[in-house]
Amino acid sequence: MTTQLAGIDLPGPVLTASGCAAAGKELDQFFDITAIGAVVTKSIMMEPRSGRATPRMAETPSGMLNSIGLQGPGIEAFLEHDLAWLRERGARVIVSIAGGTTQEFEAIAHVLRQHDGFDAIEVNISCPNVSDRGQVFACRADSAAGVIASVRRASDPAIPIFAKLSPDVTDIATIAQACERAGADGLSLINTTLGMVIDVTTMRPALAGVTGGLSGPAIRPIAVRCLWQVREVLPDIPIIGMGGIRNGSDAFEFILAGASAVSVGTTVFHDPSAPIRIQNELASLAALRGFTRLRDAVSYAHRDPDQARVEDADGDLELPEWV
Amino acid sequence: MPVQVRGEVVSLRRAGLYTVLTVTAPGVPEITRPGHFAAIAIGDLDSSGLILRRAFSIHGVQSRGIYGGTIDLVIADSGPGTHWLTQRRRGDALDIVAPLGRPFSLPRDPVSCALVGGGYGAAPLVMLAEHLRERGCRVDVVLGASTEDKLFGVLDAKRIASTVTITTEDGSAGVPGRVTDPLVDIMARANTDVVYACGPMGMLAAVADVASQAGILSQCAVEEAMACGIGVCMSCVLPVIGDDGITRMVRSCVEGPVFRGDRVRWADIGTVPPDTLGAPSSEGIPR
Ligand SMILES: Cc1cc2nc3c(=O)[nH]c(=O)nc-3n(C[C@H](O)[C@H](O)[C@H](O)COP(=O)(O)OP(=O)(O)OC[C@H]3O[C@@H](n4cnc5c(N)ncnc54)[C@H](O)[C@@H]3O)c2cc1C
Ligand SMILES: Cc1cc2nc3c(=O)[nH]c(=O)nc-3n(C[C@H](O)[C@H](O)[C@H](O)COP(=O)(O)O)c2cc1C
Ligand code: FES
Q: Looking at residue B284, what is its pLDDT?
């Protein structure tokens, strides 16, 4: 049984997280990347980008800050080298795109439309809008929806589009609803949350970019909360959940909160084979909790209090086929 | 191709300020070359809040013997992760990813080589010196540190090299001063063809400069803070000039840690030089 996500069939429910797996090649040295749900590639922009100065990362308790600045080769080189390799390898691919303007997002979507070899687009709207004093698209319903509508319009209708949301908003449910109305086929949440570290020896900010995105186990409760709130207002939209997932149990928590699939990001830095390990652990745990199909566990924590609980499986475990 | 293996601590021994950790790493010794590094997890995620691996040059390898393949790492206790490693006991398990990075390239011919190490930067140079000697190369070694207890590998160097020169900044051992002070003379006397260096960035910049001025190739193993060590996160970059003359922000974990000294823009490390491919124009860059 494959995992169904916004109408596409994936080999499993665990994906990589954008920016934490490059374009899959490095991780393929550690596990078979065709065995997981999909590789979500590093957010790509129109032109090559150098990214920010170093230091670009700082470790924090059970997490890290990053301020990479979307370094990347630009869409043309990405298609020629990275996507071509992924396709040849037979991996399932979700292409993450980013832009400094709504027009840039749309232009990238146009370029992608001329190509195949990928299964979905994830729109990273957690980047500053250069035409709006650097306001992050994802922080306002209208700018988030504007990007999603443009990308949806410019893309092949058969390709699902996921809006990747930022937790740094007052009401994430409103932003999610705006994206859904603008045509998003699914949502990805959460992106990193803004943080900062000051080095008390140099007495300066630890990152060259001053602030950075916090990721890792430290943000997991925030991610679960966001997922919960969005699921409460949008009962049916497919969601890719992420934020600090370390193991199958963490992944299962996201499934119960409403995710149909999960992405594993920072944990890959600790354990490069984490995605396949977590996929296997999730399968065992779901089976142990009595679910023969993972989709029955999606949003299960939202059920009515008086609804009967699925019984823990006793005796022989029937592992789902995607194990 | 790197592997992820579960190793077992065989021994820990003191060497000056450092701890030399020997750990089993099945399959790793056979594919390790001088300049490769290993990334070690600091406990597991259930019990440790330190989620990032720590990188260490591979100091030595033993591919046979009763432990069936071990690697040696030289650890300076400089923070919570390295401290945790120095507190391991024989038999403790460690999760190892190795060998990583691009190693030193070795000359085909028996040329004259000068090896320059700063502090624990000497760690990868011992294996390098052995490989160079096997190829019939002349090897001169310069080891430097701020103080005597921060020197590493002096005895090994004396066993392998034609000459060994020691410098300390406080004069507690060898010649007072820096590694670059005696280097010019050594290069002249030994007719050095290539300089290999590993140590702090400032030292590498100075060594690369001395070598360039003498018209000699240098290979420098850099140390940039790394989040993943395997090329997926883009945190470990520095500005490097490519074969096409274009500067790019290059990942030191996969395209390094060894770079040609004349290709690294040492003075620009910690910045994005304006002529870098894809450098920002004037507006801010997204995170
Ligand atoms: C290729 C390479 C080879 C290295 N070889 C050796 C070696 O042979 N012996 C040795 O003692 N040390 C070596 N280091 C440095 C070693 O990795 C750091 O000292 C160590 O990561 C510090 O961890 P910590 O928790 O003790 O200190 P902290 O300073 O608390 O570390 C916090 C975070 O910053 C990172 N970090 C801090 N300093 C460095 C640094 N200098 N380089 C890389 N990451 C850093 C850590 O990985 C960690 O994520 C090497 C580093 C690299 C990149
Ligand atoms: C080093 C690094 C780079 C990232 N780059 C991107 C990116 O390019 N695009 C994006 O949408 N998210 C990016 N993210 C965010 C992750 O995809 C993910 O949403 C977030 O880290 C939370 O998941 P985690 O805790 O499992 O890492 C990045 C995260 C890290 C740590
Ligand atoms: S440390 Fe992640 S790319 Fe080099």
A: 47
